Amino acid sequence: MKFEQNFSQKQQQTQKLAMTQQLQQSIQVLQYNSEELLAFVENQALENPLVEVIEPDWQPDYQKRNASYEGEETSYLNQIPDTTGSLFESLIEQVHLNYRDTFLRKLILYLIEYIDLNGFLTISLEDAIQQTNATPIQMLDALTLIQQLEPAGVGARSLQECLMLQTERDDYAPELAYIVLEEWFDQLVERKWKEIAQHFAIPLSDVQRIFDYIQTLSPSPGRVFDHSSGLYIIPDVKVVVTGEEVQVISNRGNQPNVRFQEAYFQQMQKKADKETQAYLKERKQEFEWLQKTILQRGDTIMRVAQIIVSRQKEFFTNVARPIRPLTLKEVAEEIDVHESTVSRAVNGKYLETDFGVFELKKFFTTRLKPTNAESTEDLSADTAKKKVQELVDAEDKSKPLSDQKLVELLKNDKISISRRTVAKYRDLLGIPSSSKRKRYDK
């Protein structure tokens, strides 16, 4: 067999996008919310002596906590109380205040180490006994003392025990609430209320009252110490409504900006050698890129917000706040950018109005198919979900609407969707099925 290789030279022109480090950072900057952007800009200023950060009108939480208030002008932000205490710290403090230093207190402190942020004990008593050489009675006594601490329900080993602990300490709890939780918890959750009513010889309305009471209890008592959520939101744009006119204004004051240290740059250039001049030139280029990237981020968010507001004008002028169908692709095509750019521009960015603050991505919703060929109404999934919520809110709770009945009632409003879609929307809205919505008030 003869093997032959032929070599030839040819020129080929191709075009491709090179994902440079600066381009990657520009994409990342667009995705940052206001606090993340400020942290990024301040980090750049630490690395570049030619960058001066112009602080926005707000300050992030860590700056507020570390600020010195001597001689400061009074601000409403300074009046926010310090709520940085944790559940663990609270329990330790209560133990030291209430119990003297004994072996039992050591067991209590040991168990507290295994209480999670929700307030539940995450170690079994058997394991705790093996690791501490305590007796079962001693360990049970330690747990009992923990369960007498605040908040009520702390130290529970299950949801059932958590609710029982809260009910036990509530003088206003329904008479049979504790015993129902203790012995009939599964039947109560599964809504087998007739069995409970027959056992205690009480009407279903009494079981309903017990269930309503339990709904007021906390399934995670330790979460009262959770301060991870932010105190406020920094909107990127503001919408002003004057009659029928809707105007979008950029909240530039809420965004960090940068200024070039011109005096320092000129001073350094006068006595700089070649290596220093190259360093200064590189840092100046970094400043120019940073400034351009921040401006581009603001402009992109502004352009996206303007399209959203123009498409969703009724939301701002109509008290019913209807949201029309709108997709990321439609906005992307209108401002001539990629769909992913719009996604980054709306994620974590907020719009401020006189009636509330809304995340930009709230205004995107899919389009429902019209009920028939003659129908020209532009319906969105948000419209259908709102109507489902309205129908459920207005229903007779003793005879709640089934999903099929909701389908029929929606057709009266020219909203034609399947029973499966109704069930999906109901789940998204956190509405239980009709059997679980049924009430026994009489």
From TrEMBL:
PROSITE patterns: SIGMA54_1 (PS00717), SIGMA54_2 (PS00718), SIGMA54_3 (PS50044)
Start and end residues of each RNA polymerase sigma factor 54 DNA-binding domain: 278-439
Alphabetical list of InterPro entries matching this protein: RNA_pol_sigma_54, RNA_pol_sigma_54_core-bd, RNA_pol_sigma_54_DNA-bd, RpoN_core-bd_sf
Keywords carried by this UniProt record: DNA-binding, DNA-directed RNA polymerase, Nucleotidyltransferase, Sigma factor, Transcription, Transcription regulation, Transferase
Domain RNA polymerase sigma factor 54 core-binding: 79-264
Classification via PANTHER family: RNA POLYMERASE SIGMA-54 FACTOR
Protein name (record): RNA polymerase sigma-54 factor
Organism for this UniProt entry: Enterococcus mundtii
